[in-house]
From TrEMBL:
Domain of life of the organism encoding this protein: Bacteria
InterPro entries: Ferritin-like, Ferritin-like_SF
A Pfam short name: Ferritin_2
Name listed for the protein in its UniProt record: Ferritin-like protein
Organism taxonomic ancestry: Bacteria, Pseudomonadati, Bacteroidota, Flavobacteriia, Flavobacteriales
Length: 281
């Protein structure tokens, strides 16, 4: 999952100051004005192979700051999946399926990190260093069984965190589409990546024995209460100003099926609160 999708507000001042805490930078987003036009820029870089094109698309300090923040947050997800693979917690699955899925997602996240690093270097910028992460969120989780929670419990938490990351990413990334309207290259690239992220989310949910979609604002069996913010708002049944449960002959659409048919966006405040839980410095 690409957590830059979470962010539709940022400032170059905080992001370009490498001495600043990443947590401090994240905490400022809710008070900033809208600066989202280039927030999803990294995804368009998949189609940019020429440095001159890149320079044309990314000339502002805000864009460089966005790329640095994107890299910081991609480090987070890449680190999560790598740590999961390096632990023996995935062995709890007993079939090897979980390990195979995490390996594939890990490759995707590592590719995102490399892309962002190369893009920054091509712009004459030095990529920020990888920050320190705490996937226990201050002791709330023990996904790698480092604190002796137990293999079964750690495995459940490992899957729960992946689900929270991926479901959040799908909702938040969808909210970036409006910022890309008018630029067909970036919008196309963003939508292509968004569909893959949705596949990640569905695969992780099915690995947990759940349906591949979200019903109402239910976080699913076994999900910690801390993750409820990921699902709040998904109970919306108004689309385009119309109550979708009333559509069709005889109103065949129930509340459950109506909420399952649409994913909602997530606000910057909600997304950054979730992301910042795992960033130490």
């Amino acid at each position: 999952m690409n957590i830059i999708k979470f962010l539709d507000e940022f400032t170059s001042e905080n992001l370009s100051n490498k001495g600043s805490s990443r947590r401090d930078a994240l905490s400022t987003f809710s008070s900033l004005g809208k600066k989202a036009a280039l927030a999803a820029v990294p995804f368009g870089m998949a189609t940019v192979t020429n440095k001159a094109k890149a320079a044309t698309m990314f000339q502002s300090t805000e864009a460089v700051g966005a790329l640095q923040l994107a890299l910081t947050l991609e480090y987070l997800e890449a680190s999560f999946y790598l740590q999961a693979l390096n632990s023996n917690v995935l062995d709890e699955d007993g079939t090897g399926k979980a390990n195979a899925i995490y390996e594939q997602i890990s490759l995707h996240e590592s590719a995102h990190v490399t892309l962002l690093q190369d893009t920054l270097v091509s712009l004459g910028e030095t990529p920020v260093d990888e920050p320190t992460f705490d996937f226990t969120a201050g002791g709330s989780f023990d996904p790698f069984n480092e604190n002796g929670t137990g293999q079964a419990t750690a495995y459940a938490q490992l899957l729960a965190l992946a689900q929270a990351f991926e479901d959040t990413g799908v909702r938040a990334y969808k909210g970036q589409a409006g910022a890309l309207m008018g630029n067909d290259v970036l919008l196309t690239a963003a939508l292509q990546i968004h569909s893959v992220e949705a596949r990640h989310a569905s695969e992780i949910r099915r690995l947990r024995g759940l349906q591949g979609w979200i019903t109402g604002n239910e976080r699913g069996a076994g999900m910690p209460a801390d993750t409820q913010a990921v699902y709040n708002g998904e109970e919306n049944i108004i689309q385009g100003g119309v109550d979708v449960t009333t559509l069709g002959s005889g109103s065949p659409f129930t509340f459950d099926s109506s909420t399952e048919a649409y994913d909602e966006t997530i606000t910057a405040d909600e997304a950054t609160t979730i992301a910042s839980l795992f960033i130490v410095s």
